[in-house]
Amino acid sequence: MIRKLGTLIGLAVVAGAIGVGLAATTPGKQPCIKPENGKGCLPIAPADKRVDLETPSFSSPTKVTNRLHPTAAVDSVLMLGRVARLPFRTEVTLLPGTKVIKWKGKRVRTLVSQYAAFLDGRIHEVAIDW
């Protein structure tokens, strides 16, 4: 659930940046993105604060430079908590090897990680990310 919301927000911000039209403007307020449920408004950072408006350089694509990413300091992370009052467990594991992604005519070698989420002791989501 949390991961899906994060993915939705990330996609919406990117789509808004390339002009797909997901962003709305409320009168007298900063532009925002309407959530999937249609309630509320997720604010978009001012243009001078956004990091998604330029093409990334991928100077070190196999190095985790985002210190907030779970695999920045260790190869495997276990996070525990609650979602809707139910026990929630998330595992992120950096896998051996890399994956080459073709993007805009270039080949970018990336790290590969596995994401697994368990809600109330049952598998909730499993994904391979790169």
Detailed description of the structure:
This protein is 12% helix and 43% strand. The longest helix has 16 residues, at 2-17. It folds into 2 domains: 2-49, no CATH class; 70-129, no CATH class. The strands form 2 sheets. It has a 4-stranded antiparallel beta sheet, with no helix packed on it. It is flat, with a radius of gyration of 17 Å. The model is unreliable at 5-22 (pLDDT under 50). It has one helix at residues 2-17; strands at 23-25, 31-33, 42-43, 76-83, 86-103, 106-119, 122-129. It contains 1 helix and 7 strands. With 130 residues, the chain is mainly beta.
Name the descriptors.
130 residues; mainly beta; 2 domains; 4-stranded antiparallel β-sheet; 3-stranded antiparallel β-sheet; 7 strands; flat
- The domain tally reads 2
Q: Structural class of the secondary structure composition?
A: mainly beta
Number of strands: 7
| Average residue-wise pLDDT | 81
Low confidence ranges: 5-22
Query: Order of SSEs, N→C?
Result: HEEEEEEE
The DSSP helix count reads 1
Strand coverage percent: 35-45%
Distance between the termini: 20 Å
